[in-house]
Design goal:
The protein is an alpha+beta fold. Helix content is 20%, strand content 25%. The chain starts with 20 loop residues before the first strand and ends with a strand. It holds the Pfam family CBM_48.
Length: 727
C-alpha cells in the first residue's frame, strides 16, 4: 500500500477490458467470456442458477487470462466460474457480467451540486443486483484514464478488477458479488497527467488503522436506534430559549486504558455519560472524530470525512454512544472540518491527476497557515460531497448539530494572504462568494431536514449576520462562538488583581455587541494548548486566589448572556495544558480544591438549567440589565438577568481579594432575597465569609433600582440572588 506516485507503466492486461465478462461474438452469432485468474490451471463456466457446467475456457497465456466461446449459447445468462488452482478450487461470480447501474436523478443532482446523500451512490455500498448480494464500488474521477480496484479480495492485484467507466458522468463503477465486511480496498488511478496514484476512497465509511491508508467494506446490518423520543422532542424545541451548556472533549484523551490506549465509544459511554450527567451539561461536543493519520492534528486534518477514526472503535459503537446519550437526555455535537484538507498523497489532492477537489486557481487552492489544500466550493460535485457529508453524520449517526471549524478562513479570499496573493471576486471584494453560497445552502438544508439541529460557526471576524437567517441576509447558522468575549476575558484573568481596575472594560465590552449574533461563550481546547496554559495556570496569585478567581469567572460566564461551552479538564481546574497523547489529570480530584471547582460547575449547571432567567432571553436585550458596569476601582460587576415572566436573578462578581461588607446592592423588586449560589462557599473551597441568611430589601435606591439589599461581597467571588417572596 505505497503512498507515492509512480511513472506511467503498462498496467493493462493482454485481455482488453471490453473482452472481460460475457459479450456477443464479433462477426458471428454466439457469446464469448474473458476472465483473469493468475495462477489458475483451469477455468470452467457454470450456470449460476442450475450449477451445471456450460463450458471450459481456454487459457490464453501464463498471465492468467482465459478467453473463449460459450458453446451453443446465444442469449446472455448469469454465471459463475469454477477456478481450479494446483492446490484448491474456488467458485467466483464474474463482476463483469453486471452492467453499471446509474440512477439518472442522482447523477443529475450530484453534477448539479444538490445531492444530499451521495454516500449511498458513491464509495463502497452493499447492493443487490439481479438478486445477487455484493458490494458496489463507485468513484468520481472524471479525468482518470483508468481506475483499478485493489484490495484483500483480489490480493491487491492491479489487473484483477479494472473499473468500468460510466460515460460522461465521470463515475467509475464495479459490482463485486459475495464480499464480506471489513475487507480493505483502494483505488489505483492512472491520472490525466499519466501518473499512477493509490488513493483512499473519499466516501469510505470505514478506514484502516494508521499507518495504513485503505478503506474497508462497511458492516452490513443497520443499527437499531432507540432515541425516537429524543429526536421528536429536539424537533419541537427552540434552543435559543433553552439551556445550552456544552462539554467539549477530545474522545482520544478524555480517559485512556491502563496501557495508555484510546477507549472505544462503548468504553467511553460507560464512564463519560454518567460523568456528563452528573456534571449537568446539556450537550457533549466531540472534537473531530473522522479518520486522520496524524494524531497531533487532533482530527482537524481529516483524510476520511465519512469514516470514524478507527482508533475510537466502530460505527455501531459510535451510534450506540450517541443513542445512550440521547436516552440520558444529553445531546451530542460534532466538530466538522471543511475549511481545508491535508495533502497526503493517498487523499484528495490531485485525485485524478487534476485539481479535482481543490481549486485549480493556486490562490484559492492552498491554506497558508496550515500548508493544506482548500476545497473548490464552487464545483458542484464537491458541493455534493460536502453537503452529503453533513447529512451523513446528522442522518446516519443522529448527531444533534455541527460546529464548523475555521469559518473565517472560508469566507475571505485574502485570509492570511498578502496583497499580491489573492484575486478579488467578480464584484471586486474579498468575500469568497462560492464558500458563502455553500454555507448558506448547507445551513438551510440541514435546518430543514433535521429539525432542532444546531449549526454553529467558529468565526472570529466581524462578518455581519453569521447567525442570522438567510432571508435576513445572514449565513444561516444558529450560533456563533463569541471569540471577542473569550479573548477579552482571558486577558483580564491574566492580570494581577491589583491592576484589574485598569482593564475593567475587557469584562463588560461584550455587552456592547451581545445581541448582534446568537453567541456561544466558549472556553475551548484552543485556549489551553500551545503554551497558553490551562485555565487555572493563566491566573496570577497564590493557589487560593487562583482557584477562587476561576470559580468567580465561571460564575460570571454562566450568568452572562450567551450559551456556554467548556473544554474537558477545566471543570475541575486541571493545572497542565491539555495534551492529546494522554488522559486528563484525574488524580487531581483527590484534592479538595479541585473537587470544589468540579462541585461548583456541577451545581452551577443544575441552577442554570432550573432557572429560565439565566438562559431564556439570552439573545434579547430584555433579558439583561447592568446594575453597575463601571465600578473599576473595586473590580466589581453587577447585573440582573430576567426571564420572559419578569422573574429576576441578581449577580455580583468581585475580581479582587478584598471583602466588601455592608455592601448595598440594587434589586429590581421589593422582597426577601436568598442566595442561589456563592462561589466562595466552603463546600466549593471558598473562605465562607458570607452566610446564607436571606436579605430583606429596603426602599433605598441603589444602582438605578428603587430597592436594595445589604450583603457581604466575598473575595474573588460570585454570588447569585433571587427574590424568594414579597415583603
Amino acid at each position: 500500500m505505497t503512498l507515492t506516485c509512480s511513472p506511467d507503466i503498462d498496467h493493462a492486461p493482454r485481455l482488453e477490458l471490453n473482452q472481460r465478462g460475457m459479450k456477443p461474438s464479433q462477426g458471428k452469432r454466439g457469446l464469448t467470456i474473458g476472465c483473469y485468474f493468475p495462477g489458475a490451471v483451469r477455468v470452467e463456466v457454470l450456470h449460476l442458477q442450475s450449477g451445471k457446467t456450460v463450458c471450459e475456457l481456454p487459457k490464453l497465456n501464463d498471465a492468467g487470462e482465459f478467453f473463449g466461446a460459450v458453446g451453443r449459447r446465444f442469449k446472455p445468462f448469469r454465471y459463475q466460474f469454477r477456478v481450479r488452482y494446483p492446490e484448491q478450487s474456488i467458485e467466483v461470480i464474474d463482476p463483469y457480467q453486471f452492467a453499471p447501474e446509474l440512477d439518472s436523478e442522482q447523477q443529475f443532482m450530484f453534477a448539479e451540486g444538490t445531492l444530499e446523500q451521495a454516500y449511498h451512490y458513491l464509495g463502497a455500498n452493499w447492493h443487490c443486483q439481479d438478486g445477487i448480494e455484493g458490494v458496489r464500488f463507485a468513484l468520481w474521477a472524471p479525468n482518470a484514464k483508468r481506475v483499478n480496484l485493489i484490495g484483500d479480495f483480489n490480493h491487491w492485484d492491479d489487473d484483477a478488477h479494472p473499473m468500468l467507466h460510466c460515460g460522461d458522468s465521470g463515475i467509475w463503477q464495479l459490482f463485486i458479488p459475495r464480499l464480506t465486511a471489513n475487507q480493505h480496498y483502494q483505488f489505483h488511478i492512472l491520472g490525466d497527467d499519466n501518473l499512477w496514484r493509490k488513493k483512499a476512497d473519499p466516501y469510505a465509511k470505514v478506514m484502516a488503522l494508521p499507518p495504513f491508508n485503505a478503506g474497508r467494506v462497511p458492516a452490513k446490518p443497520p443499527y437499531q436506534w432507540q432515541d425516537q423520543k429524543w429526536l421528536r422532542q429536539r424537533g419541537e424545541g427552540n434552543s435559543w430559549q433553552e439551556p445550552l451548556s456544552i462539554y467539549e472533549l477530545h474522545a482520544g484523551s478524555w480517559k485512556r486504558d491502563e496501557h495508555n490506549r484510546h477507549l472505544n465509544f462503548d468504553q467511553l459511554a460507560d464512564s463519560l455519560i454518567p460523568y456528563v450527567k452528573q456534571m449537568g451539561f446539556t450537550h457533549i461536543q466531540l472534537m473531530p472524530i473522522m479518520a486522520h493519520p496524524f494524531t497531533g492534528s487532533w482530527g482537524y486534518q481529516p483524510i476520511g470525512l465519512y469514516s470514524l477514526d478507527p482508533r475510537l472503535g466502530t460505527q455501531d459503537q459510535l451510534k450506540g454512544f450517541i443513542d445512550r446519550c440521547h436516552q440520558q437526555g444529553i445531546g451530542v455535537l460534532l466538530d466538522w472540518v471543511i475549511a481545508h484538507f491535508p495533502k497526503d498523497s493517498y487523499g484528495l489532492e490531485r485525485f485524478d491527476g487534476t485539481a479535482l477537489y481543490e481549486h485549480h486557481d493556486p490562490s484559492k487552492a492552498h491554506h497558508p497557515d496550515w500548508d493544506t489544500a482548500l476545497f473548490n466550493y464552487g464545483r458542484n460535485e464537491v458541493r455534493s460531497y460536502l453537503l452529503s457529508n453533513a447529512f451523513y453524520w446528522l442522518k446516519e449517526f443522529h448527531f444533534d448539530g455541527l460546529r464548523l471549524d475555521a469559518v473565517s478562513s472560508m469566507l475571505y479570499l485574502d485570509y492570511s494572504r498578502g496583497p499580491d496573493e489573492w484575486q478579488p471576486n467578480i464584484d471586486g471584494g474579498n468575500e469568497h462568494l462560492e464558500a458563502v453560497s455553500l454555507l448558506k445552502t448547507l445551513n438551510q438544508r440541514c435546518h430543514f431536514n433535521f429539525p432542532g439541529v444546531l449549526m454553529v460557526a467558529e468565526e472570529s471576524t466581524s462578518w455581519s449576520g453569521v447567525s442570522h437567517g438567510i432571508e435576513q441576509g445572514g449565513l444561516g447558522f444558529g450560533y456563533k462562538w463569541n471569540m471577542g468575549w473569550m479573548n477579552d476575558c482571558l486577558r483580564y484573568l491574566n492580570q494581577d488583581p491589583l491592576y484589574r481596575c485598569h482593564h475593567h472594560g475587557l469584562m463588560n465590552f461584550a455587552m456592547v455587541y451581545a445581541y448582534s449574533e446568537n453567541f456561544i461563550l466558549a472556553i475551548s481546547h484552543d485556549e489551553v494548548v500551545h503554551g497558553k496554559g490551562a485555565m487555572l495556570s493563566k491566573i496570577p496569585g497564590d493557589p487560593w486566589q487562583q482557584f477562587a478567581t476561576l470559580r468567580a469567572f465561571y460564575g460570571f460566564m454562566w450568568a452572562h448572556p450567551g450559551k456556554k461551552l467548556l473544554f474537558m479538564g477545566q471543570e475541575f481546574g486541571q493545572w497542565q495544558e491539555w495534551h492529546h497523547d494522554g488522559q486528563l489529570d484525574w488524580p487531581l480530584l483527590g484534592f479538595d480544591t479541585h473537587q470544589g471547582v468540579q462541585r461548583f460547575v456541577s451545581e452551577l449547571n443544575a441552577l442554570y438549567k432550573a432557572t429560565p432567567a439565566l438562559y431564556e432571553l439570552d439573545h434579547s436585550d430584555e433579558g439583561f440589565r447592568w446594575l453597575d458596569c463601571d465600578d473599576a476601582e473595586r473590580s466589581l460587576f453587577s447585573f440582573v438577568r430576567y426571564d420572559s415572566q419578569g422573574n429576576a436573578v441578581v449577580a455580583i462578581i468581585n475580581m479582587t481579594p478584598q471583602v466588601h461588607t455592608d455592601f448595598r446592592l440594587g434589586v429590581p423588586q421589593a422582597g426577601l432575597y436568598t442566595t442561589l449560589i456563592n462561589s466562595d462557599h466552603r463546600r466549593f473551597g471558598g473562605s465562607g465569609v458570607t452566610s446564607d441568611v436571606p436579605h430583606p430589601s429596603e426602599a433605598i435606591e441603589a444602582h438605578q433600582q428603587p430597592h436594595s439589599i445589604r450583603i457581604t461581597v466575598p473575595p474573588l467571588g460570585c454570588v447569585y440572588l433571587a427574590r424568594e417572596s414579597a415583603l
